[in-house]
Amino acid sequence: MGIGRREFVQMGLAGALAASSGPAVAAATRLYGEIPARPLKILILGGTRFIGPHMVREALNRGHTITLFNRGKTNPGLFSDVETLIGDRDGNLQALEGRRWDVVIDTSGYLPRLVGDSARLLAEVVDHYLFISTMAVYSSFTTRFMDETGPLKIMEDTASEEIKKYYGELKVQCEQVVQETLPERNTIIRPGIIAGPGDHTDRLNYWPVRVSRGGRMLAPGDGSDFMQWVDVRDLAQFVIRCLERNITGIYNAVRPAAAYTIGDMIEDSRVISGVKDLEVKWIPLAFLQKHGVEPWDDLPAYMPPSPPGEFSHMFAISSVAAFAKGMRARAATETIADILAWWQAQPEDRRKSLRAGLSVEKESEVLAAWAKENS
Fold first, then answer.
1. CA pair distance 137, 150, nearest whole angstrom
2. What are 263-322's pLDDT values in tens digits?
């Protein structure tokens, strides 16, 4: 996304102010071209898995004070200089009692019962509650450029807490609990696929890492299908901005729609990785499905617009509202380059097998079938 003359001038003025205000404030002007609001006391529920650490770093860089609340089981000691309160959202919130924060970021809310407990306890001691939801709350993606008013999923079994089965439905209820408990003092962020260094799911990682390994590679369609995600660092920056500027409401948090294709992804990954022997075989989806290869499950972070169906425009979601409030999206090439750099820094055992996408054996099997049919 280009920078216009007006934004350039604003960035220059903000940079001059920041230079006289210390390195933390200077760092805070890099993306938005403005100095942050007053320092905030921020409570983060969770904060040590994937998206949380990026939010912690962004907040610290912008001069805020952080408190973490979690069970102390995931990456303990990751932020040794940050106050950490140990507890459990399921029945052990005592560590939060008798304290006050300006704002809270809920990165770990999946069950409305537990989100309700946290929201009710914190409603009296925070001014602003920001809840990290998901694009999975939408009941269908049949409308291109769907915005935040799209239809939401309805919970069939209201007593169930099966997160894996009712992930989107439960998130809808979590959103509603936050909105009802802190009316006009809440922000709901609905990210799509979250990507970037540190992603333990390997959903978007699959494509640049697979490209970097070279050889004959299977790819779906003809390269023109769109992909859409949010870089975890862009998500973190938007979250902190919402808190600083008291931005409330509901926002889809993804890169601009219809701006980047799977063909772009593979070509950019080839250039960035420097691989020389890559041979991409673009194979029609019908053939792939005939051989047991499905979008999303076997081809992660990919969903074609045709044939028309429930997920046709899953990667053509409108994020106009978020961008109007100051969200930004770094170049896709930066995300790809940083994913590859992070991947190469992982232990050898971690790099042996991606956690998403086709196995080497399955890919070879389908490529051989395609070659036989088209020999």
1. 9
2. 999 999 999 999 999 999 999 999 999 999 999 999 999 999 987 888 999 999 999 999
Phi, psi of 116 (to 5 degrees): -60, -40
Cα 244 to its chain centre, rounded Å, is 20
Query: 238 to each of 39, 232, 341, how far by Cα in Å?
Result: 16, 10, 24
- 98 phi, psi to nearest 5 deg: 75, 15
Distance in angstroms (rounded) separating the CA atoms of residues 337 and 356? 19
pLDDT, tens digit, for every residue of 63-114? 999 999 999 999 888 999 999 999 999 999 999 999 999 999 999 999 999 9
Q: Which amino acid is at 286?
A: A
Mean pLDDT, residues 336-351: 97
Q: What's the CA gap between 2 and 162, in Å, rounded?
A: 43
Model confidence pLDDT, tens digit, residues 177-231 = 999 999 999 999 999 999 999 999 999 999 999 999 999 999 999 999 999 999 9
